[in-house]
Amino acid sequence: MKIISLFDGHASGKVALDRAGIEVETYYASEIDKYAMKVANHNHPDIIQLGDVTKIAFSDFDVDLIMGGSPCTSFSFSGKMQGFDGESKLFWEFVRAVEEANPKYFFLENVKMKKEWQDIISGALGVKPILVNSALVSAQNRERLYWTNIPNFVMPEDKGILLKDILEDGTDGWGLAQRGRKNDDGRYEQVFELNGARKSNCITTTNKDSLVFLPFTEEPYNEKYQSCKPILYTSDKFRTLRANAGSRTRGIGICNEGGWWRKLTVTECERLQTLPDGYTSAVSPTQAYKMLGNGWTVDVIVEFFKNLK
After folding, report:
1. In whole angstroms, what is the distance from residue 217 CA to residue 214 CA?
2. How far apart are CA 152 and CA 40, in angstroms?
3. pTM of the complete model beyond 0.90
4. Which residues are catalytic?
């Protein structure tokens, strides 16, 4: 099978194809981020890099599948909500690629978004999206929309994977958790609690609010912190994991039953995205966190790709 991959810089789609048992004859990739390309080439030396998507003549290619996750930044509810006027306008490059190359199959991933934008994408591709939560196949709560003409998708059963199942042994850096407090502009910082028996939420690439992690407890939600988002004491899923892990209060954190917490390691984030351990080892942790936040949950994609023929 011949593939063109767009906007999947570190080639997690290639991992999904391999796991699905799809034999890949040629794998083209369009990416401009040098760090993502370094990871892709390190893990898959046979990838053919095509460069900037806006400069590719897709009519020159005979391929079976075009796949991609076009930029979500201006579709996301946590972003500036610019829609097709922002970076997410690169979706139209995906449409152009499909129209020019006319592959047998296409596959597009993106975030949950305003219905009017979702409907525009559906109209352009001629299919409605399928909503899948990565929590079914991983320890991460990550809802994403998938537009594809690959047939016979079946929603995977919940594997029951929790955060405790993907933690590394022997890690250090645990520190005392802190309770909610006002930040410099008078707003309460977000307050969360998490331990290894709970789900994480999405790995994302930005962090607008400080994160403060509470010790694990079954106590009712404290009204003193009602300005903060509710603490999910009874849930098995955590809120959004952030890829900006530069400090204890502005990063990706976990808290154990003893009231100690630390950042998630890069390996643990790779596991949340169901990538192999060490997959992003070719780049710095800062770049690894960023691209993992931008990436796909591989085992979700496998459920689609195993129906390729």
Report:
1. 8
2. 29
3. no
4. 72
